[in-house]
Amino acid sequence: MANEIPDIVIGRLPLYLRALRRLAEDADQTTTSSQELGDRLGISSAQIRKDLSHFGEFGKQGTGYHVNYLIEQLRRILNLDREWPVVLVGAGFLGHALANYGGFHSRGFRIAWIFDNDPAKVGKQMADLTVQHVDKLEETIRNEGAQVAILAVPASAAQAITERLVDAGIKAILTYAPINLAVPDDVQVQYSDPVVQLQRMTFYLRP
Amino acid sequence: MANEIPDIVIGRLPLYLRALRRLAEDADQTTTSSQELGDRLGISSAQIRKDLSHFGEFGKQGTGYHVNYLIEQLRRILNLDREWPVVLVGAGFLGHALANYGGFHSRGFRIAWIFDNDPAKVGKQMADLTVQHVDKLEETIRNEGAQVAILAVPASAAQAITERLVDAGIKAILTYAPINLAVPDDVQVQYSDPVVQLQRMTFYLRP
DNA sequence: CTAGAATTGTGAAATGTTACACGAACCGTG
DNA sequence: CACGGTTCGTGTAACATTTCACAATTCTAG
Questions:
Q1: What is the C-alpha end-to-end distance of chain B, expressed in Å?
Q2: For B62 and C23, how far is CA from C1' in angstroms?
Q3: Which of A127, A135, B74, B172 could disulfide-link to B17, CB 3.0 to 4.6 Å?
Q4: pTM of the model
Q5: What is the per-residue pLDDT across B117-167, written as a single tens digit (0 to 9) for each?
């Protein structure tokens, strides 16, 4: 049953989770169907059922899925039944926005440390944290056993910081720098570059 | 030759473009090969050649690709040989970070207008723009013919603002709200939710 | 209790994407 | 100019993903 799960399937689970939580909270609904979930996400119902079937049987014929139960199962599958402390590197405008974003806590993450190399920023308060000098990066990661980092530094610094993060033990990096990172095979990377996303859409526009 | 180009191919072109510009600027290189480009991006050389072959023949056997020529061709293909003015909705921390981001201009975009519904923010300067009340949204989009928007508003407002954007003529939306948007078929949407990206990685971590 | 409607989980078919491998073209060297 | 080393563009094969379609199960209503 659970042999080798395609990465593309893993990538959809957080979307299912997000939609289910909306259903539970906004609509106050206790059950749903693959059809309803698919309509909300623009995904076929068969795909949702197939995706979930990689991990077990969570629904009931005739009835569908119990929303809260499925939420719990997805949280378990994605290792979200705990809170991941996150290292944030970069205390510029973007770092500031991330530090103040309220959406992490309820979804399994907490920005726990913020680092920057600018002496003018070190020591400043940001959200409820104090910006630390990037010199302390490795020490903190090792002492605290942090595995997740967000990179909000300029492209010119991104690869060097990445190597320091990886050496210190980080296994998952979300980066906003507009550059491809070289990392070992056992380190996950996710990219977020607004320009790449915009450029992907302009192809379809008439100029 | 150019019949129906897969969306997944279009999605890689901005990455090729980004890597090529780095090659041109940092490494000061005038030619490259599909092999070299692939190594930098973690993509096979065959895939790069196949992707490009959808649009024409840009290389030379034995030599590879002329970097600046390929950059020009990709810019043309992606409709980036012009500057797209962008409507930014939401002047919170994230809107602020986006307004001050220096990476748009050189890559085909310019934040041209910022809107918010908070009277405390309307009239404030942000980067070199004045925050306008969201009441003016439709009027501005129609008068200026804007087609591209970035959504940096809370999830609770996202769908309503989206409908207003679409009605006014926006055809491409990059949204940071953690919610799926319902839009007509001829409107492009790209999603950016840091939590979804983090959740996609925690699956692979040992808790 | 029975009939009918709804919905799951899943093999199999259809479709989409990537990798292979090779002829053709190009360059530099002697 | 001929040869050896590169590299492209591409037809085809291999692989991956999505969709189809249906038996099995559950619920509801009479």
A1: 49
A2: 13
A3: B74
A4: 0.96
A5: 999 999 999 999 999 999 999 999 999 999 999 999 999 999 999 999 999
